[in-house]
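Design request, tokens follow.
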């Protein structure tokens, strides 16, 4: 399941830059910069978001502060698809992907000791 993030695409005065504002704080009070996919090595939501944005293509670098994501686009990229990547960050089950059954979950659980 999970919940969609509300994303508003804001215009940027700099060509080749997309600014996305969300209804979720992703970094607290810290600045996060990702200049390459290899910079996103952590397990926090902001790291996963950076990995997904790079994987979506057309991204040169990413800066996240609080709820504002600033993306420097690759030459010729529009970034039209990036809002959907952010919007679906916390969606865990997507159409066509079934959640595990109770039997599958119980089979993966360690046996209880008596």
């Amino acid at each position: 399941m999970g919940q969609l993030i509300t994303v508003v695409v804001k215009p940027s005065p700099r060509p080749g830059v997309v600014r996305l504002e969300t209804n979720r704080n992703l970094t607290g009070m810290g600045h996060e910069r990702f200049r390459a996919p290899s910079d996103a090595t952590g397990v926090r939501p902001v790291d996963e978001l950076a990995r997904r944005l790079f994987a979506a293509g057309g991204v040169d670098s990413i800066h996240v502060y609080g709820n504002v994501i600033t993306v420097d686009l690759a030459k010729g990229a529009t970034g039209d698809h990036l809002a959907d990547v952010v919007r679906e960050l916390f969606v865990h089950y997507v159409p066509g992907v079934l959640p595990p059954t109770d039997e599958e979950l119980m089979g993966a659980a360690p046996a209880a000791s008596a």
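Comment from the thread starter after seeing the answer: thanks! Residues 7-108 form a domain with the Ribosomal Protein S8; Chain: A, domain 1 fold (CATH 3.30.1370.70).
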